[in-house]
Write a structure and sequence with these properties.
Elements lengths: L6 H10 L13 E2 L2 E2 L1 E2 L12 H15 L3 H4 L12 H8 L6 E4 L2 H12 L8 E5 L4 H13 L4 H4 E4 L10 H11 L3 E7 L11 H10 L3 E5 L11 H4 L3 E4 L13 E5 L46 H17 L1 H26 L2 E4 L9 E6 L3 H9 L2 E2 L1 E3 L3 E4 L8 H16 L2
Parallel strand pairs: 3-13, 5-6, 5-7, 7-8, 8-9
Antiparallel strand pairs: 1-2, 4-10, 9-10, 11-12, 12-15, 14-15
Length: 422
Amino acid sequence: MTFKNTLSYAQELDKEDPLRSYRNEFHFPKVKGKQVIYFTGNSLGLQPKRTKKYVDDVMDDWAQLAVEGHFYSEKPWWDYHERLAEPLSKVVGALPKEISVMNTLTVNLHLLMVSFYRPTAKRFKIICEEKAFPSDQYMLQSQARFHGFDPEVTIVEVKKREGEHAWRTEDFLDKINEVGDELALVLIGGVNYYNGQVLDMEAITKAGKSVGASVGWDLAHGVGNVALKLHDWGADFAAWCSYKYMNSGPGNASGIYVHEQYLNRKDIPRFEGWWGTKKDTRFLMKPEFEPMENADAWQISNAPILSVAPYLASLELFEEVGMPALIEKRNKIVAYLAFVLGEIAAEVDSSFEIITPKDRGCQLSVFLHGEGKALFTYLMENGVITDWREPNVIRLAPAPFYSSFEDMYRFGQILKQGILSK
């Protein structure tokens, strides 16, 4: 497709955009009285306008029904989280029974590792990506120490090749085969937070399973962003946060996936609590744990309803639009953003290096060669909400629900002025 770096062309793309009306479904911050250009949906998505009603409904039920809201509100609290399973299953490519919503991301990864990291004296190693998100690094290190292993020996990082900014799939596969029967777990971020790369999750999952390891995915940057087929790929487990591309609000509830082969089994080790026991006998207060027949068996406590309600509101939007339509717009708007960056670089005789490979979702990570943090500050002060990573990388993530093609054009003009004004 041949793009043009003009306002009229960008506006024409917006007129042709079948998702253009959804921009009005979200609240935008303002800088200098104008809506911002928002590039940080990979960190915290904008608030859907319909969220307030979902939260207000819970508050009203609490005020009017108090404890009886658990059973007699319009959406009873005791099974509120169950409403999220089906729409989430479509987003992550799973069966509804393989999905549950609970806790927060790293908490859930720890809980899932109780079930899926079962090291022995011989099979104890964990493969992850080089420089994984710090929370994942801390989690894996602490899990290794908890089981009596040295993290330096236990954790095997797959590195990018010298001088390259992206991983090669064959390097993951080779490392998995190299570690072989010492490998207990593969746990990787499916979409890298720094460079925006989407890894070949299907191939890596198949390779990990072929040597007898468990395979799990941290999908913090993947859910609501890229096409996922967790069930078909045969991944053992996954977890994700809901506040990035899923727009559920700061720190809100996490989702988990557990493959159906592990469901309705008492022989699976896990940390257990009363919300994971069978629903029909839960309030009989029986001393023996009887697991739910779905992924809810991994739930420990009742769901935090005021955290789950915004997630349900956002999932209503995903139900209306569907991942295929979001991905179609994502591909077009990210391509247009890359084009605009190239045009501006030529106009100002500067060098921008997009380090995100073609296997990508919403995010472009860009080296601003020759530019410093002052340019980032200029962008922020002029209504471009983006993200800076040392030494000189900005992460740009135009979310298809609410980003416009005109945003991409206007960002280019602000970027150009920021460079020329220094």
